[in-house]
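Internal ticket #5521
Category: modeling
Description: The requester needs a full-assembly model to guide mutagenesis choices. All entity lines are attached below as received. Residue total reported by intake: 490.
Assigned to: D.W.
Attached entities:
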Amino acid sequence: MKKTRFNELHKASGGKMIEFAGWEMPVEFSGIIPEHLAVRTKAGLFDVSHMGEITVKGKGALAFLQWLTPNDVARLEKGKIQYTALTTPEGTFVDDMLIYCMGEGDYLLVVNAANTDKDFAWVAGHAGGFEVEVDNGSDAWSQLALQGPEAERILRPLTDVDLASMKSFTWRTGRVAGREALVSRTGYTGEDGFEIYTTDPAPGPIWEAIVKAGAPLGLLPIGLGARDTLRLEAKLMLYGNDITDRTTVLEADLKWICKFQKGDFLGKAVLEKQLAEGLSRKLVGFEVRGPGIARPHYPVLFQGSKVSEVASGTYSPFLKRAIGLAYLPIEAVAEGTAFEIGIRDRTVQAVVVPTPFYKRSK
Amino acid sequence: MYPNDFRYSKDHEWVKVEGDEAVVGITDFAQHQLGDIIFVDLPPVGKTLELHQAIGTVESVKSVSDIFSPVAGEVAAVNEELNQAADILNKDPHGQGWIVRLKIKDKKEIEGLMTAGDYEKFLEGLEA
């Protein structure tokens, strides 16, 4: 199992460790519910060093990424970040990711831990004919996420980066707790916050400094358990559950990342056809209206027939009810539509609801 | 940690004998493994449970687990409070967090369960 550079710190602070995507990671420290609520109301610190970092550099980098992704990479300039996907020729997902524009012809792709090797092979495998160099720098990078309404207040005294002037989906470089780092105003929780990247071989003091500065303001260390409940409340996609190589970008309700005017890209023809003909199914949010929690792979029934399986499902610690995402046939996707979920030996009613389930007030 | 007047199963249930009845719950180890518990599915009063039959289920944010009956018997009472506040199972698993009260069918089954000392050794074995 791979270990992040914060592994010993997690164990020392009582993190319950599990295997995730080949990594030994903390699933919880003080409990999913208190951790979740700390991020919503105060702040939380996550070790997300398992995420993958792939660099794409060269004169052909922009044209190459325009071909591999549906969003318009030309809109990026140095310092800006974009949410997008790696798409297959079928318009489905290889992965979703963030692209950081590091300068002209210089991009950093931040991808899911479980997909890093696959994504690198995919990107490198499509580089023929483009003037680019593709590298998998994942082993060198450590990454922390500081999330929650108190994030800026906690980080400010620890860094020379002017956080207050940073807009969401931008990055800067500077020092954090004395270490060189890249700081971006991004996250996977639905809260304001920052992600801190560093190639420092001993980044432990960054974690320790943030915990020390944040604890008086209510900051907690957060495990993967609350990371999942937080991202689901904010309807942020999880590859493997909500988006896969069998679901298209449009079916996943991510039309906003498809910029059809920008030129050709992998999967564009299929997606345009789907747009013209209409979807046959779509990913929707639901609430369970009976006892129990709908969990991934539980059967989803509409008018008595199984139509899919729960994509993501959990108990929402903030809303205090069972929520989830599922692909439903297009005739069932309107808000308020009732359907059923098989929860073990029972069938429980669920209702399509607006998403995101949680939206922070600004 | 583990009361001496309780008996324990390998599935991490505890039993406290009170006359002809057995009070059953899950152990502190079990609640800790489950994490924040938010929902408990209780059996109907009057139901007859065989040894090791599923009493009900406990759901935490991250997982769902069956509770198995550590002794055979008829359900005499269930802890209705768990329907409103399942987290009692986390806060006080050996006390307020009892789950069911069974009318014991065969008291000899109690002897087959672990003492507190045996259970603690059993846990040490699991953690090793």
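Resolution: model delivered.
Comment from assignee: Helices of chain A lie at 7-12, 32-41, 61-68, 116-125, 151-155, 204-214, 224-233, 268-277.
Ticket closed.
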